[in-house]
Amino acid sequence: MCYKTILVQADAADATSSCATLAAQIAITEQAHLVGVSMSGVDQMIYQCNTAAPGVVVLPADLTTLTTRADASLAAFAKRVEHLGVGSFETRRIDGLPDLELLMQARYADLLVLRQAGAPEQTPYMPDSALQYVILHCGMPVLVVPYAGGPGEMGRHPLLAWNGSPEAARAIHAALPLLKRARQVTLAVFNGEETWGAHGELPGADMATFLARHGVQVEVVQRQTREPVGEALLSLASDIQADLLVMGCYGHSRLREIILGGATRDIMRSMTLPVLMAH
């Protein structure tokens, strides 16, 4: 697998932030085409107006503020990635519903780069639920960038969360272009013997062999823990100074995650490093 088209969130707070910078770094390394998208919120505005006052016609002039703001974000994004040295890029303004529009755009991308939900300056036109919806339904890997902290470098030391699930396998497959360039890769297995049939005789060994055939040498770390796996992953990432976490997401149903909690929910809420996710 390789990344040849990368779709990145480029709203006001993201146009010159970590999202744009990390996406640009990957695009340069992979010689990929970069697509910056900004959500204007036009559809939501029309819907809200019709709900509050049925029959009221929303004129194009009423939407100028929204479209102008989105266009300004895209202009800042274009200036930023050009300065960083991206050779091929374009910008697209999304006037429709963010989740549905991003799903459509994702069909023609190898990787999505989106920002962690819940940022203080989060655009109201990219709600928290939209990020979860896109990750679950886009069918592509999504690199989620934490809103706190600077861009820095990414991919020198990835941490792979391996639990033997199809979702985790898809995430690791999707991360191969990054893993092949890494200086050090750690494969983490927590409570590996608790799930029957998830691993071979030695948890993590089969995946390590698979990665070795791709030229990726990994260190397998097995740990037993009583704390939530999401918290244990973030703690391990800090201990080994990992700069990227690769994991499958929503291996359980979203309802179970909401009621009982889960690694995906914990990581999405408290991430301290970029996380490449696949469902």
UniProtKB/TrEMBL annotation:
Limits of the UspA domain: 160-278
Q: Which InterPro entries match?
A: Universal_stress_UspA (IPR006015), UspA (IPR006016)
* Gene3D superfamilies assigned: 3.40.50.12370
Instruction: Please name the PANTHER family in this protein's record.
Output: STRESS RESPONSE PROTEIN NHAX, UNIVERSAL STRESS PROTEIN HP_0031
Q: Which family does it belong to?
A: Belongs to the universal stress protein A family.
Name of the molecule in the record: Universal stress protein
